Inverse folding.
C-alpha cells in the first residue's frame, strides 16, 4: 500500500484516537447545541476516520511483518549462497585432483607403451605385458607390470 510507505505509523494511531474521541464527544456532549446539530455528521465522520485508520494500521503492521519475513528469507539465501560457494570450491578441488590423477595415469601408461612398443615391433606378436598394459590403460589404471 503506497500510503503506508509515505506516512508514518503514528499518523494512523492518531487517526484511531481521533475517531474514538469524535464518537465519544458526539455521544457524551449531546446536550451542547452545536454538537446536537451536527451530532450525526460528527459520528459518521468519526466512524469513517476510525475505520480508515484501523485499516491502514493493520496494513502497516502487515507490511512490517512481510518486510521482516523478506529479510529472513534474504538472510537464508545469503547463507545458502555461501554454503554453495564453499561446496563448489570443494568439488572443484576434487575434480582438479582427479584430472591430475588421470593425466598422470595417461603419462605413465604412455611411457610404458613406448617401452613395450619395441618388443611388439621386434616380435610382431602382442605379449602378455602389452595386453595387460592396454587393459590397464582402458580401465584408467596405472600399469604395474614389469617391462624389459
Amino acid at each position: 500500500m503506497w500510503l503506508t510507505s509515505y506516512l508514518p505509523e503514528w499518523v494512523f494511531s492518531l487517526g484511531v484516537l481521533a475517531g474514538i474521541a469524535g464518537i465519544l464527544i458526539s455521544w457524551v456532549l449531546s446536550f451542547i447545541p452545536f454538537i446536537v446539530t451536527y451530532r450525526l455528521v460528527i459520528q459518521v465522520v468519526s466512524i469513517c476516520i476510525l475505520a480508515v485508520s484501523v485499516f491502514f494500521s493493520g496494513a502497516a503492521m502487515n507490511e512490517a511483518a512481510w518486510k521482516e519475513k523478506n529479510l529472513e528469507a534474504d538472510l537464508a539465501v545469503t547463507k545458502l549462497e555461501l554454503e554453495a560457494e564453499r561446496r563448489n570450491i570443494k568439488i572443484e578441488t576434487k575434480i582438479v585432483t582427479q584430472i591430475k590423477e588421470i593425466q598422470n595415469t595417461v603419462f605413465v601408461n604412455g611411457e610404458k607403451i613406448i617401452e613395450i612398443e619395441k618388443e611388439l615391433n621386434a616380435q610382431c606378436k602382442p605379449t602378455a605385458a602389452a595386453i595387460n598394459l592396454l587393459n590397464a590403460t582402458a580401465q584408467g589404471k596405472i600399469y604395474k607390470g614389469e617391462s624389459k
Observations:
- DSSP finds five helices and no strands in the chain.
